[in-house]
Amino acid sequence: MNAIDQSGILAISTRLQRLGELLRKDGQQIYKAHGIDFEPKWFPVVYSLHANEVLSVVEIAHEIGYSHPSTISLLKELEAKKLVRSRKDKTDTRKRLISLTEKGQQLVTEMKPVWDLITAALTDLTNTSNNIMDAVNEVEARFREKSFFERAEDIRRRKSQG
User: Fold this and answer.
1) pLDDT tens figures, 62-72
2) pTM of the predicted model, to two decimals?
3) Nearest to 85 by CA among 100, 68, 105
4) Three-state DSSP class for residue 110
5) Model confidence over 127-146: pLDDT tens digits?
6) β pairing state of 54-56 and 84-88
7) Where is the HTH marR-type domain (predicted)?
8) Under CATH, which number does the domain 3-127 receive?
């Protein structure tokens, strides 16, 4: 066991990032094995546009929970691959509206059976006594109640008063 594993809850962010990287790496292998040229990091944007047809950059960032600059970076990659297109909003020219191109829509059609396979494999992988999806949902709900920073500040204040 390495130092990060031994540090317990202190390294939860690092451990979740490591798990995310493993999932992305294997996800990319799954796409490649099915002849699909697709980066797993593009999934949240492509899936959100598939589900919503047209979204502004800000709406996409909110939908996927990424920062505006991270979202723009992903959109640039997807535009370079000709999977998404943008146009200015007719009512607000500062706003860019994003949608899947025909090529992007075709790619989604090709990926749907692979998404079913990925869902089945992830369900099998996470089918443990401490189901990670249940835990993620619970922690995200608690985050909405009070952030990690707010909790740390509350603990610091209580310690300094006591």
Assistant:
1) 999 999 999 99
2) 0.85
3) 100
4) helix
5) 999 999 999 999 999 999 99
6) unpaired
7) 9-141
8) 1.10.10.10
